[in-house]
Amino acid sequence: MYPHHREREQPIFSARAHVFQIDPTTKRNWIPASKHAVTVSFFYDANRNVYRIISVGGTKAIINCTVTPSMTFTKTSQKFGQWADSRANTVYGLGFATEQQLHQFSDKFKEVKDAARLAREKSQDKELANTALTIAAPQFSQSPPVMCVNGPEDKLFRSQSADITLASEKERIKKMLSEGSICEMNLEAELFTLQDSNSKLVAALHEANANVEQWKKQLSAYQEETERLREQVAELEAHGGQGPSDLLKDELTQSLEELEALLKAKDEEIHILQSKKAEYHAMEHERDEAIHRLREMEMRNSELERRIQNTEQNLNNSLEDRDRMDTEIQRAIEILDIKIFDLNDLRQSLVKLIDK
């Protein structure tokens, strides 16, 4: 019966859009009627003076709605609009690619609705028949369903909520891994700094060791000279009057004091170098601790990578389960669409019988 009607009807306007139907249970959520954008067309039956909106997806009719003067097309967002079909007891929603396409469809809907109103005024018999059918048909509120503030775009991908949850978990683990990588980079930089300081300390230590050896040799020479001078002083004192003058004694005593002061200064330098050696050992200990922390961070990164792999596997499994569920739901929807379409054809047959 549907192909026979299409032979008599002529298309007057077409647009491509994603088709939705209101959830019959909640009357709030949208159920996608097509996976992709389909052609939605206005048809005019000159013999019956009737306007219809028809959309076919594959071999089934997604929309088969007769336009009446009481219908209203409501724009609920920049790219989405809806209208209620009381005869089908449902609300249709269309999501367009651009705002301009939505305006064009809305203008054509208003034009077709006005034409349907004029046709009803000119044909009293058809108006009475349509009035009788409207009374007999179950009434459906044409008030637009409550939509979210952002429009129905938030409802377009309800079936992907599992993807969003798993993706957020994956992003969280990646963030943890990124933070671990940053810590690892910081530890590596600290390790490089310690290694550089270690190299400088080693060079300074080698230089200090060389200086210590040189200073030890000088110290031995000074000590020998001091002992020799002391022996000379003692020998001179032993000879009594045959010794040098007081001036020579003073000079020897001054030289001895200078040598003792120099010896004391060299001892202090040796103590300073020994303290630096202790600091070098402390730096080596800090370097070992940094290497240990770096290894622990590498183990943590390996654990995070393993968790990411497990999460990706769970995500793939969830996607497969969702695809299977979507397939089953789509099959059930197709069966329901066929039943609804058959009932609609039967109704139109009854309308014909009433007209006769």
Describe this protein with a few key phrases.
alpha+beta, single chain, 356 residues, 65% helix, 8-stranded antiparallel β-sheet, disordered N terminus, rod-shaped
Gap from first CA to last CA? 17 Å
CA radius of gyration:
49 Å
Structural class: alpha+beta
Coarse morphology: rod-shaped
Show unreliable segments: 1-6, 135-159
Number of strands: 8
Share in β-strands? 15-25%
Average pLDDT rating: 78
Helix fraction bin:
55-70%
Q: Write the element-wise H/E pattern from the N-terminal end onward.
A: HEEEEEEEEHHHH
Main beta sheet strand tally, sense and closure: 8 strands, antiparallel
How many helices? The count is 5
What does this structure look like?
The chain is an alpha+beta fold and 356 residues long. Helices cover 65% and strands 15% of the residues. The protein has five helices and eight strands. Strands 1, 2, 3, 4, 5, 6, 7 and 8 form an eight-stranded antiparallel beta sheet that branches. A hairpin with a 2-residue loop joins strand 4 and strand 5 (60-66). Helix 4 runs antiparallel to helix 5. The longest helix has 110 residues, at 246-355. It is rod-shaped. The two termini are 17 Å apart. The model is unreliable at 1-6 and 135-159 (pLDDT under 50).
Describe the secondary structure blueprint for this structure.
Blueprint: H1 2-8, E1 9-22, E2 30-32, E3 38-45, E4 50-57, E5 60-66, E6 74-75, E7 80-85, E8 90-95, H2 99-122, H3 124-136, H4 161-239, H5 246-355
Antiparallel strand pairs: 1-2, 1-3, 1-8, 3-4, 4-5, 6-7, 7-8
Helix pairs in contact: 4-5
